[in-house]
Amino acid sequence: xxxxxxxxxxxxxxxxxxxxxxxxxxxxxxxxxxxxxxxxxxxxxxxxxxxxxxxxxxxxxxxxxxxxxxxxxxxxxxxxxxxxxxxxxxxxxxxxxxxxxxxxxxxxxxxxxxxxxxxxxxxxxxxxxxxxxxxxxx
Length: 138
Hints:
single chain; alpha/beta; Rossmann fold; three-stranded parallel sheet; Ras-related protein Rab; GTP-binding
């Protein structure tokens, strides 16, 4: 069912509750699910931002350490992370702007690669049948 929700996505937030460590432990399951069901046209994963929500509450587990979250994001393909609070409106706009910037940066890179590749001609002789035949028809 998640494939329907991910269809044509170009970026994603994965959110965990800083006061409930099991929600952080489930992040890798969600990231794997996302990465296996949606990708950009070049096959790369969509930009994904980790949100450590409820930062207005006491932090438990991995949420206590910015260094741990930095390392986690680097090792697991997140484009970054933010402490957020939906209740107090902490870093909600900032995190959304960051993800949109990453999406636009990736789209620009893909467009440049595509325009560059239009100038490349690839010759493929696999449909010629007899491999002993000369490659040139001159």
